[in-house]
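Deliverable D4.2, example record:
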Amino acid sequence: NYGFRLRGNERAALLAQFDFAAVPNQVIRQANPNGSRDYASLYAMPGLRVQFRPKERLSPFVAAGAGLAVFEQSALLQNGQPFPGERGSRHFGGMVGGGVDLRVYRWAGLRFEVKDYI
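Output generated by the structure prediction step:
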């Protein structure tokens, strides 16, 4: 992800951010022979992040955004037959999350984050 600061002080900062996540093929194990074998997904979600105590060593944040979610199913079904319909789809999606930044050095740190793409 990429973010840049819009406003802020010692207590809180508002950042614009762009999240990009790509999930490679994920195998689906199911008993339905007409189900897809796997899928892949891609998310491009611009949004906002509020960082609390941005100058402190430990700085929590919350984030939310909305954008594009792209999904693609495998070419074959579980039974080995070709997938009968359109394999790809694009949807409007959202992202919510939060976490904490841990400053290790002036220009380096670690981020612990939980987010969900909807």
